[in-house]
Amino acid sequence: TGTNSSTLSNLSPTTTTSYWVRVSNSCTEGGPASSNTATVTVTCTNAGITTQPANKSITSGQSTQLSVTSTGSNRTHQWFVGNSGDTSQPIGGATSTSVTVSPNTTTNYWVRVSAACGDPVNSNTATVTVTECANINIGTPTATPGAGPGQFTLSVSASSSSAPLKFEWFRGETPGIGGTKVGSTQSLFVTVTQVTSFWAKVTNGCDRIAVSTLVTVA
């Protein structure tokens, strides 16, 4: 319908399709003329998965990305919550080769890959294991005298199963309140000209914080 010119453009058949054209003019003798058949051959690759989504482990409050490597003509993706093949919990908007998730508890995910031809392919189930955020065990800060007057190396020990750990040092009189940030390493070299107090703040991989006691040098 509406294709009454000498050119038919913007064809996009999903399967191999044949076309022909009938040409008519104002003469009544002889009638219209029909063209030969022109066949548009559509090649199509079925959906496939070359790299399955992998299992991941996170700490409560963190997020992680699941991804799949797929093949197929004009393929589309849809991620789901649950075991592979269970389509009852589609993830809204999760229609690309990857999805970012942040479950509160251990959760399974999978993705369905569809192509312009053939049946859809379901990925394996990927499990995101969620562990609770661990506390930080922080030690008492120490000050080791340096070679010159007023020189000290401050250090503090800390441990947590929710890595990584981030260290920050502050100059101030009240641990955890106010203070001036003076460093961001586990050990810190300082030079003081008067009695000065320092304290350390340690943050773990799930943003839990621990604050040390004061260490005072002069």
Outline the secondary-structure elements:
Layout: E1 17-19, E2 22-23, E3 33-34, E4 38-40, E5 48-51, E6 56-59, E7 64-67, E8 69-71, E9 76-81, E10 98-101, E11 107-114, E12 121-122, E13 126-131, E14 137-138, E15 142-145, E16 151-155, E17 158-159, E18 166-171, E19 180-183, E20 187-191, E21 196-203, E22 209-211, E23 215-217
Parallel strand pairs: 6-13
Antiparallel strand pairs: 1-4, 2-3, 5-8, 7-10, 9-11, 11-12, 11-13, 14-17, 15-16, 16-20, 18-19, 18-21, 21-22, 21-23
Task: State the main characteristics.
single chain; 218 residues; mainly beta; 5-stranded mixed sheet; 5-stranded antiparallel sheet; 0% helix
Structural class: mainly beta
Secondary structure tally, helices: 0
Sheet with most strands: 5 strands, mixed
Radius of gyration: 33 Å
Brief sketch in words of this structure:
The protein has 218 residues and is mainly β. It contains no helices and 23 strands.
Task: Note down, in words, how this protein is organized.
The chain is mainly β and 218 residues long. It is built from no helices and 23 strands. The protein is 0% helix and 43% strand. Strands 6, 9, 11, 12 and 13 form a five-stranded mixed sheet that branches. Strands 18, 19, 21, 22 and 23 form a five-stranded antiparallel sheet that branches.
